[in-house]
Structures
1.
Amino acid sequence: MYGGKQFMPKNRFQKAMLDGFTDEGTFNNINESIRLAKELKVYDVVNASGKSMGILAEIVARLKVSEELEIMEIEPIERIEA
């Protein structure tokens, strides 16, 4: 709510600032962050345009609301010969 009215973000940056990615799910947020990161070049980060800043804000916002992944070590299953 903003000023008593429902505020709808108009772009990526506004959605990122309003934590608009909390309902997307961890795996979706991580996968989308990877996809967005592949769109950027290092130069885009150093000399960011408005579009690049929006993409960066979305990546950070998505990763901030994602749960940490756990590495599980699983013992290999041995084959039983019949």
2.
Amino acid sequence: MKQEEDSVMTQTIEFALIDDEEMPPIVITMGQDDMPKVVINRNHTIWLGLHRNTITSCCVSLHEKMNELLSAYLSEQRMFERME
């Protein structure tokens, strides 16, 4: 399990910079290799600059919320499996 966590931590995340009035400041999407891709919109540079510390601290909260969501989903799926 530790080795799996280490390999996840060392994976390279693709970043892209865009200039688009209609897109939000930051988007996390799927890249061509099905890995996470972070798109940063330079059109929001001032806002990004003002909130840079808050944005980066969101990672821990995002991780907790994703774990909560996915654990609930997996528990539900397991319950369905056991009912079959």
3.
Amino acid sequence: MKNNKGQFVKGSTPHNKGKKQVEYISPDKIENIKATQFKVDGLLAENHPSWKGGIQQPKGDCNYIYKDKNTRLRKPRVMKKTLVQFLKDMLYGTKTEIKRMTIQII
């Protein structure tokens, strides 16, 4: 039984409870299902269509590298400079270099 939102009501019993599969599915459908019914590890790791080389880059402070099934290595993220930061450092120097220059001038 479902409510007006299409969700099952708590405590309702499913239509196939206590029945065998042949009682509510036709034999033709059962033959079609058998090929994939209990398939294990079909789309893991490299076989998955959205596989990205085994590296997960969440927004946090580290990267996760895929090692084996259900195993990831945690590597700290190395900060990369953007091109703008690199050019500013080349033109104006870093803050520590500017401080050293002002100390030497005085």
